[in-house]
Amino acid sequence: MRRCIMALFVTLWIAGCSDPDWQTKDISGLMPSLAFELIDENGNTVSADQFLGKTTLLFFGFTHCPDVCPTTLSRLDAATQRMDETARDEIQVLFVSVDPRRDDAETLDSYTDAFGPQFVGLTGDKAALDKLTRRYRVTYGYGEEDSEGNYDVSHSSAVFAFNAQGEARLLIRDSDPMEAVVADLERLTGEA
Amino acid sequence: MLPWEFSLAWSGACLLAIVLYLRGLRQRRRRGEATGAGRVLAYLLGVATIYGVTQTHYDYLAQYMFFTHRAQHLVLHHAGPFLIALAAPLPVLADGLPIRIRHFSGWRPIARLLRPVYRTLQHPLIAPVLFVGLIYFWLVPEVHFDAMLSTDLYQVMNWSMALDGLLFWWLILDRRTPQQGGLGYGKRIAILLAVIPPQIVLGAYIVFSKNVIFDVYEVCGRAWPLDPLTDQLLGGLLTWVPATMMSAIGVLIILSFLFRDARKEDAADVSHATP
Hints:
The complex is a heterodimer. Chain A is an alpha+beta fold. Chain A has helices spanning 2-17, 68-82, 85-88, 105-113, 126-135, 178-191; strands at 25-26, 37-40, 45-47, 55-61, 91-97, 119-123, 141-142, 153-154, 159-162, 168-172. Chain A is globular and about 55 Å long. Chain B is mostly helical. Chain B has one domain (8-273). The longest helix of chain B is centred in the C-terminal third of the chain and has 46 residues, at 228-273. The radius of gyration of chain B is 21 Å and the shape is globular. Chain B starts with 7 loop residues before the first helix and ends with a helix. Chain A binds chain B through residues 8, 11, 15, 25, 27, 29-31, 60, 133, 137-141, 143, 152, 154-158, 171, 173, 175, and chain B through 60, 63-64, 145-146, 148-153, 156, 215, 218-225. Chain B: It is a multi-pass membrane protein.
């Protein structure tokens, strides 16, 4: 028990004074490192290891998403455009669709292409998605279908940032100002 | 019934609580001592609700929606421990311990070591501050955010609520009379009344807030698409109304203790008066 309390104090203490300069939410130590097995835009099974070596941004959404997803993805695109060129090449955005019923490899491919070359679309079956979303303590759910078969999907609005080694570092919210996102992404890519 | 995220600590604690209690009941029945059915029911229900909110699929909802999270804490901090303390299960649990453990010689030093800590936590001024303080602490937006992100912190949060709830209601619903070492009835009622206003203030603040205070559910996604402010409103109401109602119920129970003691005293006086 005492060891638990000590560990807690040390965690809080470290969390309390670690890097006050990050302008988005620092999640080092709070969340596990990048791991998944999903299907990419070409229909191939891919795992997280294949994406190490670059700063990785992870975002959950669906291509029929009316607002949050396109806004977030274009914001990320704008942020990377404002970074200097070398840093820009060190960044990749993984867009994980939690709506595999409508988002097949082809749909995902054309969707992410519209945003830029650094965007990679991924999806998987329910088991794979559940495992991944649970790992990052996010969830998703489906609304009721209307007469035309359209339905809403609730999903996380956060972007998780991992360093080149796949360690969880930052959580970017849609309320974070653009300057903060750019500054933190530049710093994160510079760490590698 | 199956756990969303299996935790050995929660499942083990609940299982142990039930097994020890049932063993104790059997021992007592053998000795011819009766245990009130109401108490047994309160105890089992208390443990069952705690299991229900931590180890069933309900835990999933509690992680991804604010109002269901508030309901979870209402059970962990108020209702569950309240029922358990009301059942005064300690003698039964002690009877349920295997003889070898009951006669273990190490209990005395352990008890001596823990007594000062226990005394401090159960001080009539500290207990209510701790009770309300913990509710506030885990609802500090930054703290709440981290607790909902990190699996470890989430567990620390829920355990701290459950343990503090047990301590608090144990102190309030202590079956011992003040003469037997229990806390004075006036003090108990004062504590129960003292914890009401801060909970009302917090609940009302959440209910009447026009902005989303706890954006972690927005960030992590909700269990089903529900308007964030509606979610927050429901959560605030749960923090406000049933939580403070528990105090009122507590006061009624203390009053019944008071009358019970008074009746006993009267009965004793009468028997003394008639030789």
